[in-house]
Amino acid sequence: MPTKIRHPFISFSLVFLQFALIAVLLLLLPLKNSNPTYLVQLLSILLGLWAVKTMHLGHFNIIPDPMPDIELVTTGPYQWIRHPMYASILLFFLPMIIEHFSAINGAIYLLLGATLLIKLSYEERLLTETLNDYAIYQSRTSRLLPKIY
Question: With contact defined as beta carbons under 8 Å apart, do 149 and 143 qualify?
């Protein structure tokens, strides 16, 4: 069933906020980190790349609105979590926040997390309206962390 952008202001505002907060974190956090931080970041990048490869580049969409020719992907990391790309963003910054903690860094990370949670909730509502079997998929997968959330 074809879909259109339902609320472009909401969709584009969430994407703008997501990328603005990522940019602020990249500017605030030092690039010198410990080896464990680099390892977690590497794993997060691999998770994100695996998700994009599984989704296929032509079906990748940064706005939360379903594309007109959407098909439910349930393989790769999507067999365990519904939003591996969001998980990879949060995982990428988490060790940097821990290693270089300040109230401002923590607040920006929490704002990024809240933005991603709002965005994924909005996206899931649209996917439930668009895909008949999305509710079943939701019932057997986690949002961001397998078996946890």
Answer: yes
SS (H, E, C) the chain: CCCCCCCHHHHHHHHHHHHHHHHHHHHHCCCCCCHHHHHHHHHHHHHHHHHHHHHCHHHCCCCCCCCCCCCCCCCHHHHCECCHHHHHHHHHHHHHHHHCCCHHHHHHHHHHHHHHHHHHHHHHHHHHHHCCCHHHHHHHCECCCCCCC
Q: How many CB atoms lie within 10 A of CB 108?
A: 20
pLDDT per residue as tens digits for the range 103-146: 999 999 999 999 999 999 999 999 999 999 999 999 999 999 88
pLDDT band of residue 1 (cuts 50, 70, 90) is very low
